Amino acid sequence: EAQVTQNPRYLITVTGKKLTVTCSQNMNHEYMSWYRQDPGLGLRQIYYSMNVEVTDKGDVPEGYKVSRKEKRNFPLILESPSPNQTSLYFCASSYLRGAYEQYFGPGTRLTVT
Amino acid sequence: GDSVTQMEGPVTLSEEAFLTINCTYTATGYPSLFWYVQYPGEGLQLLLKATKADDKGSNKGFEATYRKETTSFHLEKGSVQVSDSAVYFCALYSISNAGGTSYGKLTFGQGTILTVHP
Question: Which of B6, B99, B104 is nearest residue A99 as measured by Cβ atoms?
Fold first, then answer.
């Protein structure tokens, strides 16, 4: 089954404790992206990747890191989480051309206390 | 930059009522327009799309027409069901260039929560 998986689905952590949210897709997509969803703000892009070892900042990259060492995986790293990073995070993937038909993961709800 | 504005929610309707969710956009050039739907506890799914002016996208009884003159892409459904309860996002697809490669970027509206009661 074609899908985008994220782990964990729920995470509660404390300020400053490094964490990684994993994202994996099995559709051989070149393009992968991370979004955060906040009430009243819709989805905002954090980082994206057009292929292995090619990543770039989205609209709200501060406080986040990403890497793309394999085509299928695109982890999101929070080196020192802060409460303002409490949010719902989505990973998405697509072919590079036709990026509008993005396939979304189920989401990771992160709470930073 | 590109932006999408949706009507404020939440929207609460009775089953079989008519639905309209307004969406307007600002963009350079000729973007493609989309509606995504997010059911409770799930990620977003593409609901429908329109790639040029006057196109009508449709799926699952939902429709939206790309109106270039009013820069709008309003979502409509003639008779909603309880199972339509979800968050609906209007989105705009634009072409960007990075390192000599063209790629598309989705810009989302803020989302509209729809609740349908029996």
Answer: B104
In terms of Cα–Cα distance, which of B13, B6, B34 is closest to B84?
B13
Question: For the CA atoms of chain A, what is the radius of gyration?
Answer: 13
**Taking residues B81-96, what's their average pLDDT?**
91
Q: Which residue of A has its CA nearest to B37?
A: A104
Determine the residue of chain B that is closest to A37 in CA distance. B110
Identify which of B101, B106, B109 has the shortest CB distance to residue A100.
B106
Inform me whether the pLDDT recorded for A54 exceeds 70.
yes
- The token duo for A35 is 């979004």
- Specify which of A64-73, B28-37, B88-97 reaches the highest per-range mean pLDDT: A64-73
Which residues of chain B lie closer than 8 angstroms to A56, CB-CB? 98
* A10 touches B at CB < 8 Å: no
Report chain B residues touching chain A, CB-CB < 8 A: 4, 6, 32, 34, 41-46, 49, 89, 91, 93, 98-99, 101, 103-106, 108-111
Q: How far apart are CA B15 and CA A31, in angstroms?
A: 39
Window from A72-86, A93-107, B45-59 with minimum mean pLDDT: A93-107
In whole angstroms, how far apart are CA A44 and each of A13, A63, A70, A87, B62?
A: 22, 14, 24, 11, 25
**Sign, Cα dihedral of B6, B7, B10, B15:** negative
Rounded to whole angstroms, how far apart are CA atoms B34 and B57? 8
CA separation for the pair B58, B22 (Å, rounded): 16
Which alpha helices (H) appear in chain B, and where do they start and end?
none
